[in-house]
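Holo model, iron/sulfur cluster. Inputs:
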Amino acid sequence: MEKRLLLDLSPEELAKELAARGQPSYRAEQIWDWVWRKLCLDFSAMTNLPLALREELSQRFFLDPFEVLARESDEEGTEKVLLALPDGASVEAVLIREEDRRTVCISTQVGCPVGCAFCATGQMGFVRNLSAGEIAAQVLYFARLLKAQGEHVTHVVVMGMGEPFLNYEATLKALNNLNDARGFGLGARRITVSTIGVVPGILRFAQEGRQYNLAISLHAPDDQLRGELVPLAARWPISQVLAAAEAYIAATARRVTFEYVLLRGVNDGLKHARALASLLRGKLAHVNLIPFNPAPGLPFERPDDGQIELFRRELLAQGIDVTVRRSKGVKIQAGCGQLRSRVLRGRCSSDEKSFEL
Ligand code: SAH
Ligand code: SF4
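Output:
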């Protein structure tokens, strides 16, 4: 019998599995506690379970889907790992240490079918969706690492490889499991999902009745320019993306973040800032500017700091709330896909200790 990843189960599914085996209901709670709160990786260490159950569990399930293929860290404590899955696919996850925040950036797909022109992941093509357990396990990996240092994960951002709303069920299940107070218990307001603008996903997300944060990658103020950067833009024009964002705001009363990658000479002009402002004025919205993060093979440049500042000020002057993602954030969010590309090209040497971002 093929073993299943236990992290793929919701609490209800785990309870059902155990009930079907004639186990009392508190067993599921005990197992959930070992896995999601104690972060245990070994069934035999679950000492409050009968030995026979521990053995049965280890024959039917596994707890760690990853083998670490590569690790990099920088002097600020940002750590990036490339994790291999049982079928040989691999994904990246990143831990960012920032003051008292410990943010984990996770992937939802191996590669990405959207293919944005400025994105290293987009250039790799699409391999497969991650399962709910494979998505959550990235957070648990760093949670264990932090636990050994007396720390814990404080935030999760779904901004790694892949488009979360093209793998909607698995992504939501992973987040709900991480959020579940009986186990990992990470607050919903500490979890942010970034989408390229998959309209049905945004509308569905609005109806979940959860407090997760939503970020929408806009990147251009008009459909023509957006279409050059984001191939999917032709399917869901900006007007539909903004209408979906409004529906999300109406349903949740939560502010939406619009991400905007700044590409020199492409979308970083003052006219773009003004057009962006007129799209967003009056909405419960916030703009996060992400200066382009260069990677081999990507045909763009990062604007200089002066231009970034002009763009920011123009948005502010137009009444739009705006922040610029600091370089640490750029390393995490935009860097996803880059470690994998480098390793697969055989260019990641063991003495390469810092990011080349
Ligand atoms: N697929 C989702 C989430 C992953 S990408 C999305 O696109 O929103 C997370 C963020 O990183 C997105 O805003 C994306 O536009 C940005 N990003 C991707 N490549 C980048 C690069 N080379 N430089 C800066 N930001 C980048
Ligand atoms: Fe996919 Fe997001 Fe990269 Fe676009 S930016 S290719 S949607 S991961």
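The pocket of S-adenosyl-L-homocysteine (ligand 1) is lined by residues 118-119, 159, 163, 194-196, 217, 259, 261, 290, 292-293, 295, 298, 333-334 (CB under 6 Å). The chain has a mean pLDDT of 91.
Archived with the compound record.
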